[in-house]
User: Which sequence fits this backbone?
């Protein structure tokens, strides 16, 4: 086996049931009274809080084992039931057994030959697949085969139909079977027949599924709480056991006193109810047992099941020490792999420092400072010292000096965080590996965690109140691993699409756009102001010396590019002209970088942006993580310098258009309305020409959608004529910083058609959307077309329609997040321990092959170039220079084709467009 | 050959499929029975036991077809599957035939 370092392996786990004898044997005491404590507050013997069951009060000793609290894990007791009761957890098995065995002789309803055949089959499957799940199917099959028999092959008794009346009542052709009868039948099943059904008779007899004794969990499992008032409050499980005991007692008394059959049966059923809810208080078919306050009790199954259950909340996930959580805020002056940690958090999160001969002096000095050293700035101190014998000593201001003296080699000193320490930083939901990354600490004033804005996309963070978690690493191995695998710069390229996830956003993009667009030039003062933000840059020779010294933006940007960088690509502002004019592009959209000098083109989202930044992509591949990190830091600082110097603002007046344009838009809207009415007229007169594959009504809808879609676009185009690049909102939209031309045309031009489920609005009142319209109205206003813009304001009906469209968007996102969350959970549970082995195979923990070669090509998607292992175009360009570029075709599709969304998923869309249907082209609005 | 009985179609007049072999369909990857010697080699190459291989059921249409073509395929045999791959062009994998 390839697994090494395993000294003990679990080969199998066997499940068995407790027999009544076993329950009594392991019981520390029999429980008979429903009372817990006497008047003096002492636990009653043979009550539910009997001291034999363990200790929960400090100072007392367990009466069974004599140990103290925390040493004694508790002991089970038991309740002898007056009458047998069915265990809800086993009803399915009981039903299977009753149906597949004879009602009189108890034999399995199969001939001996059939039974043997099934056993043989199962053994073979088990041997071949090593899979008990597969073999369980065969047991189930044999049970099914047996239950289809109507007469017993052994004693020829005629079998009756057994049905389960949920949750715990069995009926045989209408006649009710008491648990006692059920138990008698199960007792009759011979051991040999159980083997066929997949039960090991050595450890598990079916009659044990009908309880005659009930184990009582130790008090440590159901501790009572003493309230401030001195009152005792019992655990839900104890409450339920009290119920069981009470009814059990009454049932016994009535039975012994020879009470009428009816009363005994009623009590018996009540006992069944209490025991059923004691196990599972959410059994379907019976009302849940409630607390006096009306709150349903949390019984055994509820403790284990679901998100708040033992498994998901205490075993799969745990609370940890050395972690901190607070609000986040931005700091563009930090490097992307740093995190600003508040002093209060830094003093709480500690790093264990192993004292050796060499670090002795340092450790003593640190220790002497105590837990809150004074001094100018932040001085790290020590919270705890762990002695060589493992004793943990808390350092206080008083004992700091004395403990420091005692520190010697072998001690561990837990010192506060200092600048440069490596920690893990996380934001929920942790959907991908970039949700937890390693950062370097920068201890700072104030109370928030701070980090560089470029790291927002991988965490999907913003600063509207988001909080994040920080985890201090506690071992050298963990720190080394984090440093190698988890640091921010190692995650600039995403394994999802092999492009950068960390990069410039918002103002960074606007800034670099303004810095490099066309012939932007800056005076000496401006240049110095921009460059001073990027600490280690010297002022170059000016591009123009006369009449005044001027520096070009492209020149300044080139300063931070590596000296051997060659690139050619199209920027975000590219209009996708039919024939590209390349370097002569009038939009300055053709980016050419040679020998690290930006020759032409504008640096915008396509160059630096998170998700799309081609320069980042190339640098991450060719220059390594540390160089890109430095590049991102410098590029964004330069961009921030540029935008700060020029100043940048946007407001609703950016969407101001002349009244002439407004009139034009109104005209276009009237035209569209008339055209729609024309179509409706044609439809009403029966003159509309039907489209192939569509009904007449559908044809009309399609035509109307076409007209209205076009109308919205025209409005956008008219507005767009007056929105030029001197406009801040347009700059942002064009360079890819924020917003789109569609957003702008909706603000300045017209909002356009509202849609629910991809269709024009149609539901609401009888045959109309709102009582403002006539029944059967099909016109544009009546079906949710909004001719106004966000700026001009919506009419009441339009406002209502807009809300309808908007609501669908909200509901969609809510449904999508919950559904994808569940899908992710299942996927992770299925794949959590699958890994790629040294030989490239993908295997699970059993060593079973999942894939013979990882991804079938053994290529790490993070390092692949848009799915290919080698970027041929880039190689040609680098090796052959401009000549190579002739051969290579400039990659134009970009990352977009890989389904990347640059919009925040959680943000509701401004307007809900109909699906990107071919008929209603939402995309054409982009050319404003 | 695996026979697909010619079912008269209710709509249109398509050409009726007389008989077909699933393995000849363009979307079905190539299946081969791996000879005993090859099995040992593969297991050794990957350091596997038979039960650690991916599985394929005896009732799988491809196995039925293979059974008809190249003689009986039995439980415990290993099938070599060669399929087109979006990432590497051609990918090879092996499956253990199991009951069912």
Assistant:
């Amino acid at each position: 086996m390839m697994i090494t370092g395993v000294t003990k392996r679990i080969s199998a786990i066997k499940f068995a049931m407790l027999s009544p004898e076993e329950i009594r044997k392991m019981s520390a005491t029999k429980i008979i009274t429903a009372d817990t404590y006497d008047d003096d507050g002492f636990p009653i013997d043979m009550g539910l809080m009997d001291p034999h069951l363990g200790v929960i009060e400090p100072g007392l000793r367990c009466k069974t084992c004599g140990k103290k609290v925390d040493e004694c894990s508790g002991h089970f007791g038991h309740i002898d039931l007056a009458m047998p009761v069915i265990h809800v957890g086993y009803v399915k098995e009981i039903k299977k057994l009753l149906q597949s065995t004879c009602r009189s002789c108890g034999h399995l309803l199969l001939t001996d030959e059939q039974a043997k055949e099934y056993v043989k089959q199962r053994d073979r499957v088990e041997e071949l697949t090593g899979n008990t799940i597969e073999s369980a199917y065969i047991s189930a099959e044999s049970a099914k085969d047996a239950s289809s028999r109507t007469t017993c092959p052994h004693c020829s008794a005629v079998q009756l139909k057994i049905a389960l009346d949920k949750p715990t009542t069995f009926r045989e052709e209408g006649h009710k079977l008491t648990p006692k009868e059920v138990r008698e039948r199960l007792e009759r099943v011979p051991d040999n027949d159980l083997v066929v059904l997949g039960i090991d008779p050595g450890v598990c007899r079916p009659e044990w599924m009908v309880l005659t004794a009930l184990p009582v969990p130790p008090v440590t499992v159901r501790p009572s709480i003493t309230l401030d008032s001195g009152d005792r409050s019992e655990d839900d499980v104890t409450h339920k056991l009290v119920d069981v005991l009470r009814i059990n007692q009454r049932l016994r008394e009535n039975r012994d006193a020879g009470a009428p059959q009816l009363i005994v049966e009623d009590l018996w059923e009540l006992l069944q109810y209490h025991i059923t809810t004691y196990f599972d208080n959410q059994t379907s078919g019976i009302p849940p047992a409630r607390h006096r306050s009306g709150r349903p009790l949390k019984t055994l199954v509820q403790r284990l099941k679901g998100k708040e259950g033992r498994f998901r909340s205490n075993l799969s996930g745990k609370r940890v020490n050395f972690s901190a959580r607070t609000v986040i805020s931005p700091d563009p002056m930090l490097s992307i792999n740093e995190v600003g940690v508040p002093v209060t958090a830094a003093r709480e999160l500690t790093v264990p420092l192993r004292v050796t001969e060499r670090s002795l002096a340092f450790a003593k000095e640190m220790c002497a400072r105590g837990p809150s050293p004074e001094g100018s700035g932040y001085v790290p101190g020590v919270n705890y010292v762990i002695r060589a014998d493992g004793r943990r000593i808390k350092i206080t201001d008083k004992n700091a000096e004395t403990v420091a003296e005692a520190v010697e080699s072998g001690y561990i000193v837990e010192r506060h965080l200092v600048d440069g320490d490596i920690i893990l930083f996380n934001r929920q939901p942790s959907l991908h590996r970039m949700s937890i990354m390693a950062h370097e600490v920068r201890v700072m004033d104030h109370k928030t965690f701070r980090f560089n804005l470029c790291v927002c996309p991988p965490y999907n963070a913003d600063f509207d109140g988001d909080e994040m978690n920080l985890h201090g690493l506690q071992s050298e191995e963990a720190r080394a691993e984090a440093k190698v695998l988890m640091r921010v710069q190692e995650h600039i390229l995403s394994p999802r699409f092999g492009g950068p996830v960390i990069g410039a956003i918002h103002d960074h993009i606007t800034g670099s756009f303004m810095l490099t667009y066309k012939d932007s030039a800056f005076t000496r003062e401006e240049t110095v102001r921009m460059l001073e933000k990027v600490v280690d840059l010297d002022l170059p020779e000016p591009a123009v010396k006369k009449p005044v010294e001027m520096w070009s933006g492209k020149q300044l940007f080139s300063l931070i590019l590596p000296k051997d960088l060659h690139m050619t690509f199209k920027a975000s502002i590219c209009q996708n002209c039919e024939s590209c004019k390349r370097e002569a592009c009038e939009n300055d959209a053709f980016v050419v970088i040679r020998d690290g000098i930006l020759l032409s083109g504008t640096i915008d989202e396509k160059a630096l942006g998170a998700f799309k930044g081609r320069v980042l992509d190339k640098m991450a591949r060719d220059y390594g993580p540390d160089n890109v990190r430095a590049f991102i830091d410098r590029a964004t600082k330069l961009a921030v310098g540029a935008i700060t110097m020029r100043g940048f603002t946007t407001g609703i007046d950016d969407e101001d258009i002349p009244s002439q344009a407004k009139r034009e838009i109104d005209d276009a809207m009237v035209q569209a309305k008339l055209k729609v009415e024309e179509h409706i007229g044609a439809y009403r007169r029966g003159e509309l020409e039907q489209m192939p594959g569509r009904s007449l009504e559908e044809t009309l809808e399609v035509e109307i959608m076409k007209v209205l879609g076009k109308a919205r676009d025209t409005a956008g185009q008219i507005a767009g004529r007056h929105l030029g690049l001197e406009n801040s909102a347009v700059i942002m939209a064009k360079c890819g910083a924020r917003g789109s031309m569609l957003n702008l045309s909706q603000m300045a031009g017209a909002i356009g058609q509202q849609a629910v489920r991809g269709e024009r609005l149609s539901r609401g009142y009888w045959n109309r959307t709102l009582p403002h319209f006539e029944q059967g109205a099909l016109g544009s206003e009546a079906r949710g077309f909004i001719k106004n813009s966000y700026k001009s304001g919506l009419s009441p009906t339009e406002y209502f329609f807009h809300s309808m469209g908007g609501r669908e968007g909200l509901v969609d996102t809510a449904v999508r997040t919950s559904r994808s969350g569940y899908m992710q959970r299942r996927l992770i549970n299925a794949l959590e321990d699958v890994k790629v082995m040294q030989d490239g195979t993908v295997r699970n923990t059993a060593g079973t092959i999942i894939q013979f070669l990882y991804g079938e090509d053994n290529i790490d998607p993070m390092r692949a170039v848009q799915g290919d292992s080698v970027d041929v175009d880039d190689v040609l360009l680098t090796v052959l220079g401009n000549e190579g570029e002739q051969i290579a075709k400039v990659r134009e599709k970009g990352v977009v084709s890989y389904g990347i969304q640059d919009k925040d998923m959680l943000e509701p869309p401004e307007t809900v467009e109909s699906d990107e249907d071919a008929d209603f082209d939402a995309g054409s609005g982009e050319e404003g | 050959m695996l026979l697909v009985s010619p079912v008269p179609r209710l709509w249109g007049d398509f050409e009726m499929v007389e008989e077909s072999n699933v393995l000849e369909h363009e979307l079905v990857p190539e299946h081969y029975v791996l000879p005993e010697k090859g099995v040992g080699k593969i297991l050794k190459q990957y350091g596997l036991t038979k039960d650690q291989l991916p599985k394929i059921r005896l009732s799988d249409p491809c196995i039925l077809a293979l059974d008809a073509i190249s003689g009986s395929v039995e439980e415990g045999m290993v099938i070599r599957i060669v399929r087109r791959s979006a990432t590497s062009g051609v990918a090879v994998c092996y499956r253990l035939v199991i009951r069912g």
In short: The mean pLDDT of chain A is 86.
